[in-house]
Amino acid sequence: MPRAESGEGVLALDLGTSSVRAVVYNARGAMLAKTLTDLPYKVRTTDAGEVSSDPDALVTLIAQSIDGALKAARKEKIAILGVGASCYWHSLMGVDRAGRPTTELLTWADTRSAPETRGMRARFDERAYHARTGCFFHASYWPAKLRWLRASRRGAVRRTARWISLGEYLYQQLHGDTRVSHSIASGTGLLDVNRCQWDAAALRLAGITPDHLSALSDWDRPAHSLRPTFAKRWPELRDAPWYLPLGDGGLANIGAGCVSPRWACATVGTSSALRVLLDRPRLTVPWGTFVYRVDRRRFVLGGALSEGGNVVRWFSDNLGLKPKKKFERAAAAMAADSHGLTVLPFWAGERSPNWRGDARAVIAGLSLGTQPAQLLRAAMEAITYQLVAVAAAMQRVVPAPDAVIATGGQLIHSPAWTQMLADALNVRVTTSPEREASSRGAALLVLHALGKLPKLWSTTPGRGRSYRPRPALHARYQRARSRQQHLYELFFPPPTAAAGSGSRTRDLRSPAAKR
Q1: Among 204, 197, 199, 218, CA closest to 130
Q2: How far apart are CA 300 and CA 258, in angstroms?
Q3: Is 69 exposed, middle or buried (0-12, 13-18, 19+ CB in 10 A)?
Q4: Looking at 29-38, 403-412, 414-423, 495-504, which range is the least confident one?
Q5: How far is the CA of 353 from the CAs of 121, 305, 382, in angstroms?
Q6: Are 330 and 322 in contact, with CB atoms under 8 Å apart?
Q7: Which helix (H) or strand (E) holds 466?
Q8: Mean pLDDT of all residues in the chain?
Q9: 46 contact partners, CB below 8 Å, separation of at least 6
Q10: CA triple 186-189-195, angle to 5 deg
Q11: pLDDT digits over 393-425, tens only?
Q12: Quick one: 281 and 237 in the same domain?
């Protein structure tokens, strides 16, 4: 990528569940590819349902990624104007009064708290909770995790002074900063997304008080003072503003140019998601979708699946479908829904649209003639149908987008999957040319805050290859979706104690919401 004429840029961090990245973008928002430092790591899966990390090891790794990006930036003679950070939503850990960890870092994929959600659904009104927080009774969110920790880690809970996310822990270690952005807070399941304040009823559900949480802050009130050790290590960042971490999904929309509901952003990487940004003073939260925040002005509306490229890897690694690219090509070459299979693609439990953490994958219609590539094709289609269900829920609030912008490695590198998404959604899908949408979103916001990109919120997406929907295949996929829904209802009927349906269900609405 060409360097900005001014020799200025911003450092962007991307804290993911499989790697951490640091990269510099120039003053026009273009990535300086030579500065990209991507350090992979493995999560811990020792216990059943566990997907966790060592927070101190992650801070060490993130610091190493910053070392690499800054070393390259020095060679390119780039002055760093500021720092932004993207962090995956829903991470949770405890710290004591000295700021030291009392627990491991739990990721969104850690399902050890899933049994708690059954009791929550039996006793409390999930729809009222969702209407205020934009979240569900699900293991991804903090109420279930905190209830599980209280039941299983009593000593750790007693030692815990605050519950925080990975981004908060990083900034605490670098700066001594103990604030949290509205964006990261909105992914906890504890924030009233319309009022941008901690929700009292959700806190009671989680068994904590506001004193156990960080102070809410606008993301663009940066930290400036690095701790001496890090100021010495990175002298060029000593006085740079460090803007608070934001949720990776909302930043992916910004990085891909999807800053208006005219453009939805679809991501299929390890997992999958479909999202739009809405600039509104208030939002009625539609059932089946999540609603988070970018900032106090903008909502993130959409849905997320726990499956995507991880299912492709599962077929390759666990069923021996290797070489992987050979089977992906064979699956791509098949006609739509030509395999006779119906799949419920819940290898890691269901998130959107029904958020049933207890759901597991089902493959129906197998025969002696079923071929491995047919299994892979059916799973890809099944994941796509779940994204269509998310889109249907979103359209209770916003009209169908003009186009869907595709991000994530599985879509960018699979024309067959991208065409499948266009056909199933019946909307044009265009691939994004941006390599790292989330880190770019963080960089663009920093540049906007510094006055370098005043027209950020009126930009349009960059365009790659475009895929137009084909009506005949849309109709075929609609029939397959109906078949999938019928199978879902057979295997996963609604819980017997449906939310809001009995005397045991407690109304969690705030007093104002009841009036």
Answers
A1: 199
A2: 11
A3: buried
A4: 495-504
A5: 16, 8, 13
A6: no
A7: strand 466-467
A8: 93
A9: none
A10: 50
A11: 999 999 999 999 999 889 999 999 999 999 999
A12: no
**Can you tell me whether residue 244 is helix, strand or coil?**
coil
Which uninterrupted H or E stretch holds 393? Answer: helix 372-394
- 217 vs 244: CA distance, rounded Å: 9
Within-domain flag for 148: yes
Q: Looking at residue 291, which CATH number applies to its domain?
A: 3.30.420.40
10 contact partners, CB below 8 Å, separation of at least 6: 24, 25, 27, 80, 81, 82, 83, 84, 443, 446, 447, 450
Domain co-membership, 28 together with 167: yes
CA max distance for the chain: 67
Cα(373)–Cα(415) distance, integer angstroms: 16
**Shared-domain flag, residues 242 and 315:** no
In this structure, is residue 263 part of a structural domain?
Answer: yes
142 and 236 in a single domain? The answer is yes
> How many other C-beta atoms are found inside a 10 Å radius of the C-beta of residue 370?
15
Same domain, 40 and 84: yes
pLDDT, one tens digit per residue, over 282-326 is 999 999 999 999 999 999 999 999 999 999 999 988 888 888 889
Token pair belonging to 311: 């299912």
Write out the DSSP string of 373-385.
HHHHHHHHHHHHH
Q: Is 60 exceeded by the pLDDT of residue 3?
A: no
Cβ-contact 201, 120 below 8 angstroms = no
What pTM, to 2 d.p., does this model score? 0.92
Nearest Cα neighbor of 312 from 417, 221, 231 is: 417
Establish whether the linkage from the previous residue to 323 is cis, with ω within 30° of 0: yes
Count how many domains the chain has: 2
User: Which of 70, 52, 63, 53 shows the shortest CA–CA distance to 109?
Assistant: 52
Tell me the C-alpha distance between 466 and 16, whole Å: 28
